[in-house]
């Protein structure tokens, strides 16, 4: 047993540890707590240089190792329920421009040939993965102009979809502020796999290519401890930056809390009022040394957000990916979260969406919708389960909400059952008071948005009614973007196993999306259609 354990430890060791393995077998054995941990490490990290030199230490008739356990963590959520307008007419939630859930779904379907866990599905992140041609605001001082469409629902003939979309003001390249970036990179042993640290390096290289002379970039790393490997460096010193990046190797445990603390310290010491100050954390979220509790890390980041330093979280890898920590940190840090499963996704986040990823145009964007009980009997918010707010939170500027980058689009969908519709799911109460006289029949709802400009602490308010006269009589008459977003929402709900779209077939989603694909310069919408087809095949094979 001792020899077999030693071989496993040495096979997963880095170059520095190989020497200690050769000279001190007992010391190496102390690092191996169990066969399961060793085998999981080998699977996650892959073969390391020098591993074959110690193969002779293993017994020749070893049984093949078991497959590693999947320990990915996602917050457990239930789909939003149907609400009775007469009892609860107001719906309030925070914006969300994260796209993590969509990329995780793509990895499960494309790479693993299986459907994603239902708790990993956040339908709004599927919908918000795509850009939509909403009315563009004219000024950074008024960065939103709501676009609202009401259409028939594609999956339920008796209901309507209310589609609320906003597009953030798009800063022109010559008007974007300079960036002061601290890269916080996880280089622990869990980051050895090809889709972890090696992909981090390639992704950061794409970001570095976008940096200019007046930008500043620094690198902090953490494994068993944290350290600065690149002091703030002009963005045009690309060779120096890449040399520091390419010298990094993975190994050791994961002191994520210590890394965050050091990154904020460095960002605060080099804070510049005339720049966007941002930390970009790249990790699988598998923190296991020091402060590892997600709530404690969230509290630390929340305290730091008042410093004016934003936090972007880029998730990498599979098997042990901790989505709970990634989401909590991004939400607490006035930033966004994305999951990088391929180099193409890195290019989307860090090149195509460079300005929206780095440059905020508004913070604490909140939505509040008051439904008219004379017209809308029931409603259901599709997605945003982890972003719900209390009604009183809308007017409370101390309550944190989502932040929006340059050119970002945010979409929210409600499914409505109108008064008199046979699609209503909630019966009238036997002992309810007699219905009041019909009220205003000209409006479905009244929509309010609150937001703060990046340098302000007092929120601003946008209000707009949703006239019944503006509703589309057929789905085919609705804009392409409304139809495509509906297709994406239908797919997300099927994977979420919400029950509302069970009778809407994958083939119908494909048809709806195909007919609404429109211009697709990067192939994102075509890829979505292929993912729906692949999911249908996987689902069929399971049943």
Write the layout of secondary structure elements.
Blueprint: H1 2-11, H2 15-23, H3 25-30, H4 35-45, E1 83-84, E2 90-94, H5 100-110, H6 123-127, E3 147-152, E4 160-167, E5 178-186, H7 197-209, E6 216-222, E7 226-234, H8 238-246, H9 256-269, E8 275-283, H10 294-304, E9 310-315, H11 323-332, E10 337-339, H12 343-352, H13 354-358, E11 360-371, E12 376-382, E13 402-405, E14 409-418, E15 443-452, E16 460-467, H14 480-496, H15 506-515, H16 524-542
Helix pairs in contact: 1-4, 7-8, 7-12, 9-10, 10-11, 14-15, 15-16
Could you please describe the fold and organization of this structure?
By secondary structure, the chain is an alpha+beta fold. It folds into 3 domains: 2-57; 83-172 and 361-421 and 440-492 and 509-542, Immunoglobulin-like, CATH 2.60.40; 177-358, von Willebrand factor, type A domain (Rossmann fold). Helices cover 31% and strands 21% of the residues. The strands form 3 sheets. A 6-stranded mixed β-sheet has the order 7-6-5-8-9-10, sandwiched between helices. A 5-stranded antiparallel β-sheet has the order 1-12-14-4-3. Strand 9 (310-315), helix 11 (323-332) and strand 10 form a beta-alpha-beta unit. The longest helix has 19 residues, at 524-542. The model is unreliable at 1-62 (pLDDT under 50).
């Amino acid at each position: 047993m001792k020899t077999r354990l030693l071989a496993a430890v040495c096979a997963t060791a880095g170059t520095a540890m190989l020497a200690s393995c050769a000279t001190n077998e007992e010391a190496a054995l102390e690092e191996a707590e169990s066969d399961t941990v060793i085998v999981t490490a080998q699977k996650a990290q892959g073969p390391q240089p020098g591993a074959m030199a110690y193969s002779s230490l293993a017994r020749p008739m070893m049984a093949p190792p078991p497959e590693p356990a999947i320990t990915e963590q996602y917050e457990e959520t239930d789909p939003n329920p149907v609400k009775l307008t007469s009892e609860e007419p107001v719906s309030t939630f925070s914006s969300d421009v994260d796209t993590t859930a969509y990329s995780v779904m793509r990895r499960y379907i494309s790479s693993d040939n299986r459907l994603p866990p239902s708790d990993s599905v956040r339908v709004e992140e599927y919908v918000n993965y795509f850009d939509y041609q909403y009315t563009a605001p004219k000024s950074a001082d008024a960065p939103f102009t709501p676009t609202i469409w009401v259409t028939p629902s594609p999956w339920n003939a008796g209901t309507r979809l209310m589609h609320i979309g906003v597009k953030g003001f798009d800063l022109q390249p010559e008007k974007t502020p300079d960036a002061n970036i601290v890269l916080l990179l996880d280089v622990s042993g869990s980051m050895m796999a090809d889709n972890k640290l090696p992909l981090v390096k390639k992704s950061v290289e794409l970001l570095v290519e976008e940096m200019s002379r007046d930008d500043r970039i620094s690198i902090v790393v953490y494994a068993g401890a944290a350290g600065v490997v690149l002091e703030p460096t002009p963005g045009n010193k690309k060779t120096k930056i890449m040399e520091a990046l390419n010298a990094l190797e993975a190994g050791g445990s994961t002191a994520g809390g210590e890394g965050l603390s050091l990154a904020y310290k460095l960002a605060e010491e080099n804070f510049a009022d005339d720049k966007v100050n941002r930390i970009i954390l790249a990790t699988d979220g598998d923190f296991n040394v020091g402060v590892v509790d997600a709530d404690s890390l969230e509290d630390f980041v929340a305290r730091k957000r008042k410093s004016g330093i934003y936090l972007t979280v880029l998730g990498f890898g599979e098997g042990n990916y901790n989505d709970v920590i990634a989401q909590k940190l991004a939400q607490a840090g006035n930033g966004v979260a994305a999951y990088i499963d391929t180099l193409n996704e890195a290019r989307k986040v860090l090149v195509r969406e460079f300005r929206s990823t780095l440059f905020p145009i508004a913070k604490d964007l909140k939505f509040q919708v008051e439904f008219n009980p004379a017209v809308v009997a029931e409603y259901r918010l599709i997605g945003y389960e982890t972003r719900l707010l209390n009604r009183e939170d809308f007017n409370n500027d101390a309550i944190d909400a989502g932040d929006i980058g340059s050119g970002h689009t945010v979409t929210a969908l409600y499914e409505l059952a109108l008064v008199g519709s046979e699609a209503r799911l909630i019966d009238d109460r036997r002992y309810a008071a007699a219905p009041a006289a019909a009220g205003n029949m000209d409006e479905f709802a009244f929509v309010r948005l609150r937001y703060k400009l990046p340098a302000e602490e007092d929120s601003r308010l946008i209000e707009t009614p949703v006239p019944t006269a503006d509703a589309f009589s057929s789905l085919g008459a609705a804009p392409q973007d409304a139809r495509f977003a509906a297709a994406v929402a239908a797919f997300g709900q099927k994977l979420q196993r919400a029950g509302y779209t069970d009778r809407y077939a994958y083939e119908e989603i494909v048809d709806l999306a195909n007919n609404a694909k429109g211009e697709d310069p990067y192939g994102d919408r075509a890829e979505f259609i292929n993912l729906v087809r692949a999911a249908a095949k996987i689902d069929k094979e399971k049943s």
